[in-house]
## 1
Amino acid sequence: MDKKNRLKLIKYTLFFSLLQICLILLLSSIIDAGYNPEIERLNYYYKIFLALIVAPLLETFFFQFFIIEASLAILKRFNPYISISVAILFSALSFSLIHLYDLNNFFIAFISGTHFAYVYVLCRKRKLYPFLVVCLVHFNSNLFALIANEIL
């Protein structure tokens, strides 16, 4: 990766991470999100490992990379805007279903999933390592959530 692309990667990651944190703050001030009791019972360090390493990698692979790429391949004969919109919607809906601890959390996860899917599609179009950018944005989002839960 050349210097120009590295700078773009950093800019995109920082911008979309800040946007994701703003979304979380805004939604959290409006909606009381529930907690998954299964996750709350885990060892603190294991929870950090899951939230910062496992979740960003696996969820980005399945919910952004796999679902979006498969959707776009299946829908390629349709209008590109419709194909992209359906792929983003399907990705966000799938992402929110695994975060279905309660209805409030489902809604927040749907907004976050839409954001992650949009970032993936945008970076894919601009050939800017979409998997890496979404993983980093997801990592930063989870890091913020962990820190906020400790402080609040």
## 2
Amino acid sequence: MIMLPGKPPYSQQGGEDQIENILKMNFSYPLGEKTNKKTPEGPWRYIWSHLPYKIKEAFYKSFRKGEEYSAPGKRLTTADWYDRMEHYLNDALDKMIENDPMSAELFPTRFKRVASLTYISCKLCGKDVVEDMTENGICRDCLSKGEQCHCSRCGKILKYTNRDKYISQEKRHDLCLNCHTYLNQVYSEVYCSECGSLFTITNGEYEFLQQKGFRLPQKCKSCRAASKYAVSHGSSQVAAGGNTEDPDQLITGTGSLISQLLKLSKK
């Protein structure tokens, strides 16, 4: 199985030099707990996991420096390899397939099943995975995948992962972190022309006003809200035939709606 796809035995993660790996006999496929944790990504680690222990042991102890069969005078003979392969074909393979049908595949898509573990189908990709290695029924590989979108301000590519979508249940972001931080920073500080309090204008507010062709506000949010309220209620009073002899007094006088609203807001 491992020999058919044509992957060099000393390939490993990190793209290290093949010649150096051969000279150092730095074999990256594991045997039990023995591993350099550099097994190549992709189907290779799955293929290796579906091999019977005796085949793994023969490869590992032959290709890994310092192991039993690694020295030239201690190499396994052709007959030794034949016996192991014959046992694999005639004895071990049927039992392995019975335990896990994927052991018959040339390119398995997951690790060999362990009888003591529970497996489920991933909700997104449908692959059989160990239940303890999923979240909300989704495998880790699928959680790391997702969609790409762009920051609406600078165009930077943003990744919206399945973890963000299904586990964190976050909404897709329109802004990258840099733009979000910048737009929330203070552009300027202004003293309200109505009440005299200091208020801030953010970069985001400034950019919005510039795009719309509006001038910067001279009143704080509370005074602007009070002005809108006063104007709307003043219009209602006009429509009802109320007292409108002194509209300036209605909006800005000491007894005006603005003054009353500001007093209430400060209680």
